[in-house]
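[agent] plan:
  1. take the single chain provided in the ticket
  2. run structure prediction with default settings
  3. attach structure tokens to the ticket
  4. add a short note for the reviewer (M.T.)
[agent] executing step 1
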Amino acid sequence: MNAVVRDVMTRRVVSVREDASFKEMADMLRRTRISAFPVIDRVNRVIGVVSEADLLVKEAVQVAGTSIVAALRHVGEDNKANGVTAADLMTGPAVTIAPEASVADAARIMYDRRIKRLPVVDPAGRLLGIISRVDVLAVFSRPDDEIRDEIAHRVLPTTTGSKPADFEVTVSDGIVTISGPPQSEAAARALLDGVRHVQGVVAVRDRVS
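[agent] step 2 finished; step 3 output follows
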């Protein structure tokens, strides 16, 4: 099993048009309790993302006694402080992902770019859904017996050429313990690497001799 973004993404997405006003967005953030949402153009293409942090710039500058230098310490935020629409305030271009991409790829992008969610788009850039960190972590809810079956019937034969009966594989809460005699040290390394990449595996305990 290799979960893809389409399997775990949220399809009902709260988004705003590029001409949405500051007040509209502030109200939407409050009502939905969502910390950010995609900004789309007239043909539903994702052009950026607006977060509560983007809107906070304006409030920080307007508070009496707040240092403008402190509020605008990030490059480009001087424009946001004066912005009145989603297009003014958004961070763009948006970092997006395709529905066919793997969940592992989504996790890697979120980690590397330090972002909490990715708009999911079609080849034309139109919004299809959104995937968050919580959605990515959903792969770890995969049942233990399903993980074990994949290791026994797919990973073992392809990495060691062995039969499932040649190794003992147990899975508990996503933690895999594997023992048995591989044909070579290279085969053992290939086996353990293959097990670590199985969807839902939390950790691997190496008992391979």
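[agent] step 4 note for reviewer: The chain has two domains: 5-138, 142-208.
[agent] ticket updated
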